[in-house]
Amino acid sequence: MTPLRLGTRGSKLALAQSGLVAAAFTAATGRPVELVEITTAGDRSTAPVAQLGVGVFVSALRDALVERRIDVAVHSYKDLPTAVPAALHIAAIPLREDPRDALVARDGRTLTDLPDGALVGTGAVRRIAQLNALRLPLRVTPIRGNVDTRIRRVLGPEADLDAVVLARAGIARLGRADEITETLDPMLMLPAPAQGALAVECRHDDHDLVEELGALDDGPTRAAVTAERALLATLEAGCSAPVAAYAELAEGDDGDEIYLRGAVISPDGERAIRLSRTGTPAAAAEIGKALAAELLDRGADTLFGSKE
């Protein structure tokens, strides 16, 4: 049986995520999987992600798919541009890891336990904005690097930060969840749209593979991510903008319903617009679009800052 060629970035986290998808695919289909490492523009640059633009961790993988050098690609869903190329298809969104943000701090401290003037590093404008909005006596600084590099800056022998904030999902997938000192409540730190979710992408015309990959799809995760991403797309803000969205599925009076929270925060944390909306999973995209429209009506587009 010909192995499935699965394209992945070469970072430790990307390989761990792709390994999970590969194992699930082989378990479901019996077909072996070969991992193909591909270097993206985001991997080669040390510039802040917000300056690199949308899709810097994605374009090279999508090119490889279109050129048929690989059969499938695995992405961190939150890295994807909101527009999917016509030739490609998100065939599966597996069960989501915990989407919340997490704190790794010296001496086991929580966010409110950090001393005055503590230096906290994080990579996303969204996190910087929400940390600033908390009005804690902290200094927040933007950082780049993989999960290991960021944690080393807090817990390593040459540590230069008091704490870092990053996605809990990545820490957990690397088996380092015991180093988390606090998982941040979404009321304090609303996650990025699709945080903790993976996107398994293939060519649109590869009908047999689309069907096979469907075995990996998790319906509730897809509904939640669809709502969050529809909000982001309607705002036209890009994945590096200070936009947060988190959808949860719960049992309502008439069956399952989605509870979607969305927020846009100015980078300095001075202004924030936070709204929510509910609806059925079948209407996930419409819920996201409607909530985005409400945010825009309240002036959300004035809080984005630069979209570069």
TrEMBL record:
<dbReference type="InterPro" id="IPR022419">
    <property type="entry name" value="Porphobilin_deaminase_cofac_BS"/>
</dbReference>
<comment type="function">
    <text>Tetrapolymerization of the monopyrrole PBG into the hydroxymethylbilane pre-uroporphyrinogen in several discrete steps.</text>
</comment>
<comment type="pathway">
    <text>Porphyrin-containing compound metabolism; protoporphyrin-IX biosynthesis; coproporphyrinogen-III from 5-aminolevulinate: step 2/4.</text>
</comment>
<comment type="subunit">
    <text>Monomer.</text>
</comment>
<dbReference type="InterPro" id="IPR000860">
    <property type="entry name" value="HemC"/>
</dbReference>
<dbReference type="Pfam" id="PF01379">
    <property type="entry name" value="Porphobil_deam"/>
</dbReference>
<dbReference type="InterPro" id="IPR022418">
    <property type="entry name" value="Porphobilinogen_deaminase_C"/>
</dbReference>
<keyword id="KW-0808">Transferase</keyword>
<feature type="domain" description="Porphobilinogen deaminase C-terminal">
    <location>
        <begin position="224"/>
        <end position="296"/>
    </location>
</feature>
<keyword id="KW-0627">Porphyrin biosynthesis</keyword>
<dbReference type="InterPro" id="IPR036803">
    <property type="entry name" value="Porphobilinogen_deaminase_C_sf"/>
</dbReference>
<protein>
    <recommendedName>
        <fullName>Porphobilinogen deaminase</fullName>
        <ecNumber>2.5.1.61</ecNumber>
    </recommendedName>
</protein>
<comment type="similarity">
    <text>Belongs to the HMBS family.</text>
</comment>
<dbReference type="GO" id="GO:0005737">
    <property type="term" value="C:cytoplasm"/>
</dbReference>
<dbReference type="GO" id="GO:0004418">
    <property type="term" value="F:hydroxymethylbilane synthase activity"/>
</dbReference>
<dbReference type="Pfam" id="PF03900">
    <property type="entry name" value="Porphobil_deamC"/>
</dbReference>
<feature type="domain" description="Porphobilinogen deaminase N-terminal">
    <location>
        <begin position="4"/>
        <end position="209"/>
    </location>
</feature>
<dbReference type="InterPro" id="IPR022417">
    <property type="entry name" value="Porphobilin_deaminase_N"/>
</dbReference>
<feature type="modified residue" description="S-(dipyrrolylmethanemethyl)cysteine">
    <location>
        <position position="239"/>
    </location>
</feature>
<dbReference type="GO" id="GO:0006782">
    <property type="term" value="P:protoporphyrinogen IX biosynthetic process"/>
</dbReference>
